[in-house]
Amino acid sequence: SAEYTTILAEARGRVGWITLDRPEALNALNSVLVTELIDAALIFDASSEIGCIVITGSERAFAAGADIKEMADQGYAEMLVGGPFPGWGGFERMRTPVIAAVAGFALGGGCELAMMCDFILAADTAKFGQPEINLGVLPGFGGSQRLPRAIGKAKAAEMVLTGRMMRADEAERSGLVARVIPADEFLADVEHTAATIASKSLPALYAAKDALQAAQEMPLSEGLRFERLAFAAAFATDDQKEGMRAFTEKREPNFTHR
Ligand code: CAA
After folding, report:
1. CA atoms within 13 A on the CB side of 134
2. pLDDT single digits (tens) 86-134
3. More exposed terminus of the chain, fewer Cβ within 10 Å: N or C?
């Protein structure tokens, strides 16, 4: 939309598309971009017209990290208070499923942004890495916590401590990405996947996302308790009635909330 300068945000049907758009800096995440990205994402998240959000970049780069030029001269207080680092809480708490669609570089904060999403779809050109160690720092958008959860301690430690890049096939093998797609089919596949999600019952999507996130945070017994209650609660929705009736009547469900 017109007021943004570093992203493009557009609803296509029930899918909210956010395209990072700072080609001159390989979509490096500066303060303006992060502010605009979170703003656009929260607007989509608040809308009942949107059932899935896609975050993507260009063919060359999803995002090459936090903006090094913006950070270089900052101190402790600036890191704590301002810049692109502190503001992610709202993004991480969104209800709507979010897909990261990664082609090209997803490095540092770019890889971390992708990991903040519910899952990553990768073009076969994707390259992931946490190269902060080469700059004399460490991951700062959650990479030291989410990468070990995604790919295990050994691989995460090797990535973070060496700063090396991982190609799409290794990322898929390691469980970092849901699927690798040939570059020429990439956006069509992402669009199809997002539209599939967006066609489902919104209350069911919110609950499923919530339970999946609980799996990242809770011990198993707590997570199972959470799921049991959320599952029972789903039976208070019209969409559960409609979904199960449609199955027995051998037709497509016509959900109220989508
Ligand atoms: N910040 C600011 N500018 C960046 C950038 C970044 N993270 N990444 C790339 N750019 C800029 C380059 O400076 C260059 O600009 P100029 O043309 O004005 O010099 C432009 O984007 C194109 O980049 P390159 O010429 O370097 O392109 P390349 O194809 O030769 O190399 C690359 C691509 C390997 C991705 C290389 O750009 C690179 O190593 N980028 C930095 C990656 C990085 O270290 N990311 C981590 C940042 S720290 C961080 O993210 C902290 C955190 O945890 C949140």
Report:
1. 12
2. 999 999 999 999 999 999 999 999 999 999 999 999 999 999 999 999 9
3. N
What is the length of the chain?
258
| Annotated catalytic residue, options 57, 108, 109, 129 | 109
> Ligand 1: which residues within 6 Å by Cβ?
25-26, 28, 64-69, 105, 107-109, 112, 131-132, 135, 139-141, 143
36 is catalytic: no
Contacts of 83 by beta carbon, 8 Å cutoff, 6+ apart: 31, 70, 71, 74
Report the C-alpha gap between 49 and 22 in whole angstroms.
Answer: 28
Can you tell me the distance from the alpha carbon of 7 to that of 18, in angstroms, rounded to the nearest whole number? 7
- For the CA of 135, the closest atom of ligand 1 is 44
3-class secondary structure, 40: helix
Beta strands 61-63 and 105-107, pairing class: parallel
For 138-190, the pLDDT digits (tens) are 999 999 999 999 999 999 999 999 999 999 999 999 999 999 999 999 999 99
For helices 202-217 and 220-234, angle between their N-to-C axes, nearest 10 degrees: 170
- Top mutation candidate among 20, 30, 68 for ligand 1, by most atoms within 8 Å of CB: 68
Q: Is the pLDDT of residue 58 over 80?
A: yes
| pLDDT band at 258; cut points 50, 70, 90 | confident
- Annotated catalytic residue within 66, 103, 150, 207: 66
Ligand 1 mutation pick, 26, 116, 132, 165, max ligand atoms within 8 A of CB: 26
- Regarding pTM above 0.80, the answer is yes
